[in-house]
Specification:
about 375 residues; two-stranded antiparallel sheet; alpha/beta; TIM Barrel
Amino acid sequence: MTEIEIGGAKRARPAYALDDIAIVPSRRTRDPEAVSVAWRIDAYSFETPVLAAPMDSVVSPATAIEIGRLGGLGVLDLDGLWTRYDDPESLLAEIAGLDPDRVTPRLQEIYSAAIRPDLIASRIAEIRAGGVTVAAALSPMRTAQFAKAVVDAGVDIFVIRGTTVSAEHVSPPESAREPLNLKQFIYELDVPVIVGGCATHQAALHLMRTGAAGVLVGFGGGAAHTTRDVLGVRVPMASAIADVAAARRDYMDESGGRYVHVIADGGVGRSGDLPKAIACGADAVMVGSPLARAVEAPGHGSHWGIEATHPELPRGERVQLGTVGSLAEIMHGPSRTADGTMNLVGALRRAMATTGYSDLKEFQRVEVVLTPTR
């Protein structure tokens, strides 16, 4: 891609967000009922390519079960309140009602409580009792410490999720914490691992070489994330997904055919973003804010991620989204609005039907155009 000169000492390549692209209709159309949006990773099959982000405002044990019943995959945040408190319901309601100037210090205080292995086990058991696939997430810094408790509790899919995760993390010699050796960790684990985020071809290729079943593209958080403001770090999602999809292709050639799933994490705020993410090469999407608008969501219409709770450098905020309908309506409709906040899966199915594609893998080949002015 042609680079642009920023100044005498720096050049940069252009990159595009999902808002900057649009899907092009083809010569063929289909009935929406003739379209499959099924997705499979490792031994686990899902009726929809939608994962609920591991955020306390989105996923509780109860909503993880409901999302599973609706054909998606709810990922519980094991760094969150559900593994720090026996009953976090009152704290979730308190966070939703905090004055804006009190949010960050109060989040830092609430999330300073220790993570308890017994609660990890009980939350995973609760989701398993609901009869759905059990997925749970830890940050890279806590993965080695709590991995045994997670696997022993019976998790089906292990997610390692951070703002950005690399296969070559370096710590100073005096550091008390040994950096996580992802390749060795994944090799020794008996369950499939999804890891991320990443946003470049090279970083994704290194993560794929660790043996991960899937990689998360983006920095997570989406609507509640302030990483761009705090750290100056951001890669627009359309370009990030396409670059990581290219890494998947190159890794398949390198590995003799091993397929690693690409999961867009962040930037999917409206129903139209979901088909655009798939069109750029994603196999599935991880969403937060759309599901945080559900009446069942534990955030009570508010939305925040674990990044907002960092004791030294918070990189997120609580945002007020309100509620628009039930989880079932947000995922499968019917929609009562025309703003893309409801019937996410129906929108994906109709976009595929409008362009004539019958399944997700085919739809990754759809033509897109740049629409910078939207």
